[in-house]
Amino acid sequence: MKKFVIGDIHGGLKALLQVLKKINCDENDTLIFLGDYVDGWSESPAVLDFLIELQKKQPCIFIRGNHDELLLDWLLGNNDNIDEKLWFQHGGEATVLSYQNINAETKERHIQFLKSLQDYHLDDKNRLFIHAGFTNMKGVEHEFFKPLFYWDRTLWETALAIDSQLSKDAITYPLRLKIYNEIFIGHTPVTKIDETIPVNKACVWNVDTGAAFKGKLTIMDVDSKEFWQSDSLPDLYPNEKGRN
């Protein structure tokens, strides 16, 4: 049995189908999705439909992303929680348009799925899977403000900034980077640092390779670190802009 982790999908169902086909997934393999299933490309409802059915066929772990929470608020009519102008600029408009012809029954199924998402997953090898990060120096169980699990960027910024020569025993070594053996995140595309493949800094693996923008979707074997990528999303959706 293998364990795979998948980066941010952002409505790109075609990319998800490509990477799953490439790994030739066994029904006993576990798929861990790091969140942000929606907002960007035109198939957000179809992505949720696919994931809902996929979990009936094999073990799946679905982490909550910030865009998933925004969609849930919109579907529930919690508009006070949404800056609609800002959301639309970051992929929400494509999602709202894609829901125009979605019936009430399907919307309710999506609501229940979005409510079921996990804030994080910690496996038996002390590996943390989380959309964005956490800020408490004692770990996720002690986080006071839970939305940081899917909004934080400081964990990744800290991992990027740390001197690779700094010993873990140094008094200045960030405590957050000592708690877990490995941390797998999405949320902040590695394309922001001019990378196109998963990036490892300290104990953090960033698997968001920019599928919402001009990048590709990535799936990675958690143990071996072998990874597979889709075509670039603008090539799969040539008549759309995504979040570009």
UniProtKB/TrEMBL annotation:
It comes from the Bacteria. It comes from Flavobacterium cheniae. Residues 4-190 form the Calcineurin-like phosphoesterase domain. GO terms for molecular function: bis(5'-nucleosyl)-tetraphosphatase (symmetrical) activity; phosphatase activity. InterPro entries: Ap4A_hydrolase, Calcineurin-like_PHP, Metallo-depent_PP-like. One of its GO terms (cellular component) is cytoplasm. CDD domains: MPP_PPP_family (cd00144). GO terms for biological process: RNA decapping. The lineage of its organism: Bacteria, Pseudomonadati, Bacteroidota, Flavobacteriia, Flavobacteriales. This is Serine/threonine protein phosphatase 1.
